[in-house]
Amino acid sequence: MDYAKKDLISINDLSKSDILYFIDTAKEFKKISLQDIKKVPTMRGKTILNLFFEPSTRTKTSFEIAQKRLSADTINLSISQSSVVKGESLSDTILNLQAMKADAFVIRHYESGAPFFISNITNASVINAGDGINEHPTQCLLDIMTIFEHKKEIKSLKIAIIGDIVHSRVARSDIAGLSKLGAEIYLYGPQTLMPRFINSDNIKIAGSMDNAVKEADVIIMLRVQKERTAFYFIPSIEEYRNYFKLTGEILKLASKDVLILHPGPVNRDVEISGSIINSGKTAIFDQVENGIAIRMACLYILLGGRHS
Ligand code: CP
After folding, report:
1. What residue's CA is closest to ligand 1, atom 5?
2. Domain co-membership, 30 together with 105
3. Is 4 part of a structural domain of the chain?
4. How confident is the model over 164-188, as pLDDT tens digits?
5. Which residues are catalytic?
6. What is the number of the ligand 1 atom nearest to the C-alpha of 55?
7. What does the DSSP assignment read for the chain?
8. What's the pLDDT at 308?
9. Does 102 share its domain with 158?
């Protein structure tokens, strides 16, 4: 199968069969990370620039590892040391880096839509590594890969997504991707952080924590975004903890082989009990491991046969 687009900006741009193609390709690339020599020459000669305008541990590191495992030349532009701090515009930054014959840009930006804007001014491939409150498509793909590994099938699974639904780019991408694969999605969080309108039969507002978790096959806990929005919409972290934290007690309502995901970084004992993480009941580190394979697959699919 072929994927003709040069960019990965939004999960909404992918069909169900595109998503499955990305996952199947990632499964093959995961094998490379299990070899003694974790490197293949697939992307030798390709130049990839990582531009992270916002902090990141998992996404930034796993993109860089993915690029190195594919033998690409990878450059991390340090935004705080770049001419961005002298006022150079985003478009001028990109045009100058493009003049250095970049084949791809991996962009994390605090502004929603920045990767889309960049994709329109460059011939290089653009991968959205998380933009504002909009989307995080590679997180969605790695979440789907992790669910497939544990559950074999996604159609008809009850998947609860709990937390700040409105401002979560992970939720936005996961809802789009998982509903394309036929999951039954239940959303729950503080009233102020819930979507007002839902126009899909397989996406529901749970109404309570118990309803969200009851018989859930998968629970995706979202991070309280202290740096972005949290304190405008909830009275306090203590209140959030009291009503929206996943505890061992609430977890008893879920399906007995429930899969628990969290995109990270985790606020322990705010979104989820530290004891649940320590007990090894979550697949958080499987998500991180799969992040490398998914990002290798994205780079390969977007850049593999392209000569910019
Ligand atoms: N999941 C995620 O995007 O984590 P980072 O912010 O550490 O990249």
Report:
1. 56
2. yes
3. no
4. 999 999 999 999 999 999 999 999 9
5. 58-59, 86, 108, 136
6. 6
7. -----S-B--GGGS-HHHHHHHHHHHHHHHHHHTSSS----TTTT-EEEEEESS--SHHHHHHHHHHHHTT-EEEEE-GGGSGGGGT--HHHHHHHHHTTT-SEEEEEESSTTHHHHHHTT-SSEEEEEEETTTB-HHHHHHHHHHHHHHHS--TT-EEEEES--TT-HHHHHHHHHHHHTT-EEEEE--GGGS-S----TTEEE-SSHHHHHTT-SEEEEPPP-TTTTHHHHSS-HHHHHHHH-B-HHHHTTS-TT-EEE--S---BTTTB-HHHHHTT-B-HHHHHHHHHHHHHHHHHHHHTT---
8. 41
9. no
